Amino acid sequence: MRTMRKVQAARAAVAALVVFSVAGLAPAVSAAQPAAAPPAPEPQTRFGEKIEVREVLIDALVTDRKGNVIIGLGKNDFVVRENGKPVELTGVTFYSNRRLLESSDAVAKKRINVDQVPEDRYFILLFDDQKGNAADAPVLLAQQLEAGRRAREWVSRDLLPNDWVAVASYDYKLKIHQDFTHDRKLLQQAVDEAVKGKETEDNWPSRQAAHSGPTLLVGLPTGRELRDRTATIYQALQTLAGAAGKIVGRKNLLLFTIGFGQINPLRQYQPDLRYYPPMMEALNTANTAVYTIDLWPAGSNHTLSDAMNQLANETGGKYFFNFVNFLTPLEQTSKENSGYYLLSYKSEHPAGASGFQEVEVRTTNPELQVRTRKGYSYGAGAATTAAVGGGAGSWAAIPSRSPQSSWVPTSNSPAHTMSLAS
């Protein structure tokens, strides 16, 4: 328990800063250089310039090509770069939502600390309402209803006791049909309302008062401001990320959609630069991975599939298409989120600067597949992006040991795959 509190304190302190001074030396000029053409001065660190040092925490999902979670990796198994330059990892910790069947000694040999395994997972089901397309493409509304049916089945059959799920939809504004809960009946009802486009009450404070666990509603704008701030689906995702970012840990947003964005004269997708960058940065800063689930039937080819693929790749999620049953993306998303690595390292930026820092993560084993968020916001911009939804402070449970799973070694590798127990 004490170890978990330290881990969560570290998560909450991502934005903590250490400021110090660095002395800079001017580059020497060669005596042989003609006086009339001195070399251009190189950028240099001025004496007394302040540098901010942050601890960066990046979640990494590592699987084999079949989607099995890989365990047993350490610092030397990852390569992390900022601006093309490798950074030195200060820590690598594996987390799972399942307890281990093996003995503590056996688990320790695989570099897993059982005391640092949390149990909660977070899923947000978001339905991009297709009623507006029903006249031109009635199949989309049928697909949406089928997605809802399978989502209710997934909730009823596959949710674990430690899974928190919320349900939302979007038509001309963001609607929260159900805040985070374990209650399967409430979730099934909420999914049914979402796919049928039922209106919800505005997010007045009275809807927030009774919620004691992790919550989206408390972090969202109240009243009609929620409608005004979510006039586009880009803004809805950005606002949702701001609310989800107040919850410690990885959040998985399952977006049922046909995609969105601009189509250029060559009939190619391009992101709307007015809305896409702040949306993407908000999702990454909030540690929210988007799993885009295509509502077009299997075998369909459409331009906006590129939009869904880009959004998933840049937030550490996955794009699902050409499947015959909506249970497939739901089950695969749940499976691959049964375990992930938390990578930590120190990063430096000039004091007072703000922006978005891209991060590249891979493993030294090219056969392994790694998915992470694209980067993080720093400086004043980080607070602005995260606070887009408004609302109260963060929520984090102090987890106990996580539920059961078995661990199966792979051959010719120090890593291992994780086989889930039912």
Overview of this protein structure:
With 422 residues, this protein is of the alpha+beta class. 24% of the residues lie in helices and 29% in strands. It has helices at residues 2-12, 104-109, 138-158, 184-195, 225-229, 233-244, 276-285, 305-313, 327-336, 380-386, and strands at 18-22, 49-63, 69-71, 78-82, 85-86, 89-96, 99-100, 121-128, 163-170, 174-181, 251-257, 262-263, 269-270, 288-294, 318-320, 339-350, 355-363, 369-372, 375-378, 404-409, 416-419. The strands form five sheets. It has a six-stranded mixed sheet, sandwiched between helices. Strands 1, 2, 6, 16 and 18 form a five-stranded antiparallel sheet that branches. The radius of gyration is 23 Å and the shape is globular. Residues 1-34, 40-45, 100-104 and 384-422 have low confidence and may be disordered.
Structural classification: alpha+beta
Fraction of residues in H or I helices: 10-25%
Number of strands: 21
Alpha carbon gyration radius: 23 Å
Q: What is the terminal-to-terminal distance?
A: 26 Å
Number of discrete helical segments: 10
Query: What topology, given as strand order, has the largest sheet?
Result: 10-9-8-11-14-15
**β-sheet strand percentage:** 25-35%
Instruction: List unreliable stretches of 5+ residues.
Output: 1-34, 40-45, 100-104, 384-422
Give the overall pLDDT as a whole number: 79
What is the 3D form? Answer: globular
Largest sheet: 6 strands, mixed
